[in-house]
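pipeline: protein-struct stage 2 | run 1193 | G domain-containing protein
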Amino acid sequence: MSEPKFAVVGHPNKGKSSIVSTLAHDDSVAIGRIPGTTTRCRTYPMKVDGEVLYTLVDTPGFQRARAALAWMKQHETTADKHPAVVQAFLAAHRDGEHFFDECELLTPVMEGAGILYVVDGSLPYGPEYEAEMEILRWTGQPRMALINPIGPADHIDAWQAALGQYFSVVRVFNALKADFHKRTELLRAFGQLQGAWRAPLQRAVESLEQDRIQRRLHAARLVADTLSGMLTLKIEKKLAPNAPTETEKPPLEAAWRKRLQEMERRCRKAVEEIYDHRRLERIEAGLELLEEHGLFSAESLRLFGLSRLQLLGLGTLSGAAVGGLLDAAVGGASLLLGTLIGGGVGAASTLLAADQLIDVRILNMPLGHKLLVAGPTRSINVPHIVFGRARLHHSLVSRRTHAERGTLTIDEHLANRVRPLREEERRRLEKIFAQLRSAQDNGEARERLFEVVADIFAEDDLVEE
């Protein structure tokens, strides 16, 4: 049997195309606020690795359901002949204009597509929908009703009571907010409509779950590589022997900052493409990199940077480790003063380094030339802030449905969309960041950073909104 096919049908402007876009993971589906955006049937296959798992058919809305049902009732014989009457209706009116929309949406159904009937749960139920539902019942095809609340879900109970009389399965499904787990739950429900669909749809769910894991790993690799690149970034400029070095420092530092901006923005764009959001418009309110007043806004520092207490803890641990080497070297004769002093010095230096972005160094070269070197960063907070912003962006993008066409806004008010990092996760990250800052990384730290980021993204994915 070929892959399951579902015709998404209903009243005009009730979110049919949004349902198609969400379930097909396709942001090319035309969605409009004006009724009649969809005028012809169009198929959207859901593919993973080139294999079609199921197909959705976007259809125009019913326009003359009562008149169409009246025609069918005039030709009614017995219930077992209802599908034949629907076929006769199509044969009689397919080439005309009066029932064009009804013929267009019923054709894929009578060719074997399952029915997904979409209503808006934010609007009251009314008898005008009963002609549509009765026609769909006459087709004899497996059918499910989806209540898609476009606004406040004030009328869902009435809809469920009415729909349950016409459809074997009724689900509430918000096309704009349904996360990945809700979408796969719906696919499993589809499998209950017809026994022959159960196995292929279960396989579709498994394929989609594996595909999502691969996308998440791809995104984690991208974020980890971007973080590594930002932590080790340095740019150089060779100067003539008599060139004024001090006036050359600010432009070089500005160029370094701009490079960081570009790296972060490229990373965000690539993450969006990983999740097939290629037409996404994005606004970063308050989270842009600020060239004039520092690398990050104060709000980014507050939301994603380390607190003074955390910085002190990291500094004390690193300083104590150095002091411990002194104690060992003198056989303990220092009475552990090395550890205590090292801890204090480490804590103080860590607090200073947290806000110290980069140095622009001057190196002497042969023949009197000089080399200006900007970077890499000395700030302990930079990678934590960049990663925090990357987590927020990844969470918003990976959960975003393809029916959502509004601008993606990233600002501090959305920071609560990601769970707080556990202290153990934060310490694992800082250990790797410290190794990358040391410029002694041989690739091992990059790989471990990818593993930690992947673990954190996987934990994030388990947290429902």
